[in-house]
Design goal:
The complex is a heterodimer of chains A (320) and B (512). Chain A is α+β, with helices and mostly antiparallel strands and 320 residues long. Chain A contains 11 helices and 13 strands. In chain A, helix 8 (221-235) crosses helix 11. The two termini of chain B are 36 Å apart. The chains are: A alpha+beta (320), B alpha+beta (512).
Chain lengths: 320, 512
């Protein structure tokens, strides 16, 4: 079925289409954010940057008045080191799973981020404090805690494959598939679900919310695709993973970019990336095509029929 | 904007590496008769004595005791490296009163001097050389003052009463020295115990002398000689360890000096030291005879055998590292095993080689396990990363010290080898695993920690394989082949074994 493996991804796509010098644009979320602002790409509201130990001491000033926020390492990878605070009451900060923590805990987390605990290779880092996304109510009911995000693979400016990542109890509010989040393959053409998996096994319903995943249709799909193409154009990276969210107020918003997107999206879609990537490699100069032309190309070539419903015997109960 | 260019130069380069690698290996095989496989072999110990001293600008005469064919060993060849010096070997005197010596001389040298003497000894259990007993020194006054002589003679008297012959006398005399601690201490003020033993044995009319023994262990550097007591009875002799009273000689011990002479005589210099490096070589039977011809040095004889032994011993280990690296590369690219720290397993495997596998694995688990506990406490202290890792490093070193002492106290001398572990690497491993634990749970720690251990053990198995050791040490050009293999693996685009499992629902089944 043309599954893309790790070795081929690294050699034929990442090192072939993603020049090293462009990598910092996506490896450093602060740079991504600045780039996005320059190109009018919507991003979550920026509360502040903590870039030194003295700034950690005064972080209370920065957080004063914030009801909810999220702290990220600028150079973190794989969702590491992201701290989400959903409400603040009487000096206690409540994490997305309801666990209350104190200010010193936040300061310790910031100090860890600055020391490079979560960054690639342990390099010095800075922490970004962002406003929390208010998930579009339609999508919110599919997710348990956490923010459901949409991962798009954009190759040479053309959207190739997409999935929705829904956090659940096992994944502790994180939307990373290897941590147990549910991955729903989304048809690039229509924005409708084609398949869903959790821990590499097919599922039909969300284990916590019980929603029928196959009825999921992402609203404002065209806008999301356009945003994905815009992200690809602004970075110049040929093989890009774009993580988007649908904010209740802002609409489609860029969460982060990834120059080394994972391969699980193939399992979520029950389809291989290779035939689609090769189709695009046949194009002479996709950069000259307009965004709309590229999306039409993706619609024509990469639309998929939803898979047959999961037979009950195929459903593997997920231990929680 | 595809970045990669034509692959032709790459494949040419790899092909060139392979051709050069195999070609040079074949050349060594054909021209120097180095066998591909470690066949039937004879064991040769190459021993190198490195003499260092400070010359004062005066004429220098330097004489070093050197070994000859002896019980269990046959001397094959010897070499010296001492540019600017005149050199002569003096043979053993017929009456056995003096042994073989190498004598260097120079008119005027200045500053720090280094001389090498190297000898190849063939292990030959059938080799017998009778040693003549030393002439007993004419009854002379025992060293030391009155009370010391009295105490010494008392010890001798006790030992004489409990012994039957020369050997039992020696054994009892050493036991006297061990049990009568006070007398032994008093005597120790005048001369060393072994000198007292020789004097007392002579006093009792027993032929005995001090000899210098070298323990032969592969890859050892900066070794020194151990003084041992040699006692004669009729035609035979026995060796006694003056400290423990242990009798006999192990097969891997060679007598270096055994003619009651000094190891080194130096005129015209001072601060002299002698250190020994030992390396074990397995040489095919037919090659033992023509060993001298192999010594021809040529540019194409690209082997590390032309280096001094000290460096050879070092390289014997270093040349195995690429093998370990290759194992890691294969397991990661072809199998997809996850390890914590890319090449950490190779370093752990190197440590296993020093410690033996079981001790190594137990030690590794012990250090990492306890280290993780300490680290979980440190994580509550809210420390900066660098300080925390430094704290882990210090804890690991303390742990290693504590385990070493504990093991020694419990009589497990194996436990001492725990010190061979790379401490900084272990600290980083603990740090990473601890973070992994906090973020992804203990399961990932087991997966990655177990993965690292499995890779380390596999690397160990490959690196200790006789054939691998033989090939890497004898065919330096193998490194070019490793290089080519790593380059080829670096452009492997196929699936990893783990991916076939991961994507098994998506990959075509057999038959369609």
């Amino acid at each position: 079925m043309g599954i893309l493996g790790m070795n081929r991804r690294n050699i034929s796509y990442i090192s072939a289409y993603n020049p090293r010098y462009l990598m910092p644009l996506v490896d450093d979320k602060l740079k991504t954010k600045q780039l996005a602002l320059e190109h009018d790409v919507p991003v979550p509201e920026m509360i502040g940057v903590v870039d030194s130990q003295p700034a950690i001491k005064n972080v209370e000033l920065l957080l004063r008045g914030q009801k909810s926020f999220c702290i990220k390492p600028a150079k973190g990878s794989g969702g590491k080191g992201i701290l989400v605070i959903i409400r603040v009451e009487e000096g206690r900060y409540y994490r997305s799973n309801g666990q209350p923590i104190e200010l010193p805990d936040i300061q310790r987390h910031l100090s860890n981020i600055l020391a490079g605990l979560f960054s690639l290779g342990g390099a010095m880092d800075v922490a970004i404090v962002e406003g929390l996304i208010v998930v579009d109510p339609f999508l919110a009911e599919y997710s348990y805690e956490g923010v459901p995000d949409i991962r798009l693979i954009v190759f040479r400016g053309v959207p190739v494959m997409s999935m929705m990542r829904l956090s659940c109890a096992v994944s502790q509010g994180k939307a990373n598939l290897h941590q147990g989040a549910v991955g729903v393959g989304i048809d690039v053409g229509s924005g409708r679900a084609v398949n869903a998996v959790q821990r590499d096994h097919r599922v039909s319903h969300h284990p916590d919310t019980g929603c029928d995943l196959m009825r999921l249709a992402v609203p404002r799909w065209q806008e999301l695709l356009e945003l994905g193409c815009a992200c690809s154009d602004m970075t110049g990276l040929g093989y890009l993973g774009v993580d988007l969210v649908l904010d209740a107020n802002q609409g489609p918003v860029l969460l982060e970019l990834n120059a080394r997107p994972g391969l699980s999206i193939q399992i979520a879609n029950h389809a291989g990336l290779l035939p689609r990537l090769r189709e695009i490699e046949k194009l002479k100069n996709p950069a000259r095509m307009s965004v709309r032309q590229r999306i039409d190309f993706a619609r024509r070539h990469f639309s998929a029929e939803p898979l047959a419903p999961v037979a009950p015997s195929e459903i593997i109960p997920v231990s929680t | 904007m595809r970045l990669s260019k034509s692959r032709a130069p790459f494949y040419t380069f790899v092909a060139l590496l392979l051709i050069a690698g195999f070609g040079l290996a074949a050349y060594r095989h054909i021209a120097f008769d180095v066998p591909w496989l470690p066949g039937e072999k004879r064991q040769i110990w190459s021993i190198e004595a490195k003499i260092e001293y400070l010359a004062k600008g005066e004429p220098v005469k330097l004489s070093l005791a050197i070994p000859d064919t002896q019980m269990g060993f046959e001397r094959l060849g010897e070499h010296t490296a001492s540019p600017g010096y005149g050199l002569a070997f003096t043979d053993a005197a017929a009456d056995g009163s003096s042994g073989r010596r190498a004598e260097w001389s120079a008119r005027s040298v200045w500053g720090k001097q280094t001389l090498y003497y190297r000898v190849d000894m063939l292990v030959d259990p059938n080799q017998r050389v009778d040693l003549s007993s030393p002439s007993i020194a004419p009854p002379k006054m025992l060293q030391g003052d009155g009370p010391q002589v009295t105490a010494a003679l008392q010890l001798l008297e006790n030992a004489l009463a409990r012994s039957a012959d020369n050997f039992t006398l020696t054994r009892e005399l050493i036991r006297e020295f061990r049990t009568e601690a006070q007398s032994a201490q008093l005597l120790g003020q005048a001369q060393t115990r072994i000198d007292w033993l020789v004097d007392l044995l002579h006093h009792a009319g027993v032929p005995a002398r001090k000899v210098l023994l070298l323990n032969l262990e592969d890859g050892r550097r900066r070794q020194s000689l151990a003084p041992v007591l040699q006692v004669f009875e009729g035609d035979g002799y026995q060796l006694f360890d003056p400290a423990t009273g242990k009798q006999g000689r192990k097969p891997n011990q060679i007598l270096w000096e055994y003619h009651s002479a000094a190891l080194l005589d130096l005129i015209g210099g001072n601060q002299s030291t002698v250190h020994f490096s030992v390396i074990e070589q397995e040489v095919p039977v037919n090659q033992v005879i023509e060993r001298e011809s192999v010594r021809r040095s040529s540019l194409l004889d690209f082997s590390i055998h032309s280096l001094p032994l000290e460096e050879q011993a070092l390289f014997k280990g270093i040349l195995l590292i690429p093998v370990g690296v290759l194992v890691v590369v294969m397991l990661r690219i072809l199998v997809g095993l996850r390890t914590s720290g890319t090449f950490m397993p190779v370093l752990i495997a190197m440590a296993f080689i020093q410690t033996s596998l079981l001790t190594g694995v137990v030690g590794f688990l012990l250090i990492v396990g306890v280290g993780l506990m300490i680290r979980s406490y440190l994580s509550q202290l809210n420390l900066l990363l660098i300080a925390r890792i430094s704290a882990v490093i210090i804890s690991v070193i303390v742990l290693i010290a504590v385990f070493a002492v504990l093991a020694y106290q419990l009589g497990l001398s194996e436990g001492l080898k725990i010190t061979f572990f790379p401490m900084i690497i272990l600290s980083w491993t603990i740090e990473r695993m601890s973070i992994l634990w906090e973020e992804e749970g203990p399961k990932q720690v087991l997966v990655q920690g177990g993965g690292s251990l499995v890779v380390a053990m596999l690397a160990y198995v490959v690196m200790t394989n006789d054939i691998v050791r033989h090939l890497t040490f004898n065919f330096l050009s193998l490194q070019l082949i490793f290089m080519a293999l790593v380059l080829m693996l670096g452009s492997y685009k196929g699936y990893r074994l783990s991916e076939i499992r991961r994507f098994k629902e998506l990959l075509p089944k057999d038959g369609n």
